[in-house]
Design brief:
The complex is a heterodimer of chains A (about 80) and B (about 200). Chain A has about 80 residues and is mostly helical. Chain A has helices at about 5-10, 15-45, 50-75, and one strand spanning about 45-50. In chain A, α2 (about 15-45) packs antiparallel against α3. The longest helix of chain A has about 35 residues, at about 15-45. The two termini of chain A are about 30 Å apart. The mean pLDDT of chain A is about 90. With about 200 residues, chain B is of the alpha+beta class. In chain B, a hairpin with a 2-residue loop joins β5 and β6. The chains are: A mainly alpha (about 80), B alpha+beta (about 200). At the A-B interface, α2, β1 and α3 of A face β2 and α4 of B. β1 of chain A pairs antiparallel with β2 (about 35-40) of chain B, so a sheet runs across the interface.
């Protein structure tokens, strides 16, 4: 396959490539969000500020579940 | 015999006699916080001072986050320019859009977390310095108040002078590591409070 036809086939299937990239990236991001949530939970155990710590924990868990939901959406509907 | 013994003196320094204050999520300097506790805190130990970096130090990442939020709007206005080269289905566009904003939310959460957990605590017994350098990197060091020899602060540059923040250095005895509350608000006040605790009221 010559470079020009390779590039044109790449452009023709860009939607499929982007779908796969989205699924893989969102899976990695879900893992990262889990690590962030665990780490924020650990830090809140070390130093606890009544009120703010609970909100921060909630936001970290929300971030993780949003990443999971996005991964599910990408796998199921794309 | 009731009450205090005759001739007994109760010495309280300025910071201990002040009323308790509530620390908010945005607080960067709180005297006698009543809603903060930390791991390994003794039952008879009270937090005298909570120090975080000055709020103004958050401005660069807040500006960057605002730019990140606005980028898709800019790309959308230039969509006619990109259309001949990139043409995605609406489902892919929607998920890509949601994924982008999730990353921006994650960025804001992490930057706030780094600021929020970089805390210096001065208690009635010790000084504790929590340094969170990244998502997976943290360093916690502490020293007893009787090992503190000297407290100084430096305020270099016009921005630090205008917004009144600087680096507070706590020098400890012998080979012990020195402590630094970097970019702390009102450094002169912090030095005064720690000075009172280590050497009695001035």
């Amino acid at each position: 396959m010559d470079p020009i036809s390779f590039m044109s086939s790449l452009f023709a299937s860009q939607d499929v490539i982007f779908r796969f990239a989205l699924v893989i990236l969102s899976a990695f991001y879900g893992l990262f969000a889990l690590i962030v949530a665990i780490q924020i939970g650990n830090l809140n155990r070390i130093i606890k500020q009544v009120g703010a710590s609970a909100v921060l924990n909630f936001l970290a868990v929300l971030h993780f579940f949003a990443a999971l939901a996005l991964l599910a959406l990408a796998v199921l509907f794309l | 015999m009731s009450g205090n013994l005759e001739g007994e003196f109760v010495i309280k320094n300025e910071s201990q006699s002040e009323p308790k204050h509530s620390a908010h999520f945005y607080s960067n300097l709180v005297l006698n916080p009543n809603n903060v506790t930390f791991e390994n805190q003794d039952t008879d130990e009270e937090i005298v001072l909570l120090v975080r970096r000055d709020l103004i130090t958050n401005v660069p990442w807040i500006i960057f986050a605002i730019i990140l939020i606005l980028v898709p709007l800019l790309i959308n206005s230039l969509s006619s320019f990109f259309t001949p080269f990139f043409n995605f289905s609406s489902g892919v566009q929607l998920i890509g859009f949601l994924f982008y904003y999730l990353i921006v939310f994650g960025y804001i959460l992490i930057q706030f977390t780094l600021w929020y957990f970089n805390v210096g605590l001065v208690t009635t017994k010790r000084i504790v310095d929590f340094n969170v350098l990244g998502v997976l990197s943290k360093q916690i060091s502490e020293t007893k108040l009787n090992l503190v020899e000297d407290v100084t602060y430096s305020q270099v540059g016009s921005i630090r002078s205008v917004f009144d923040y600087g680096d507070v250095t706590i020098q400890t005895a012998g080979t012990q590591e020195n402590f630094e509350f970097d970019r702390a608000p009102e450094p002169a006040r912090i030095v005064h409070i720690i000075g009172d605790l280590i050497g009695g009221p001035r």
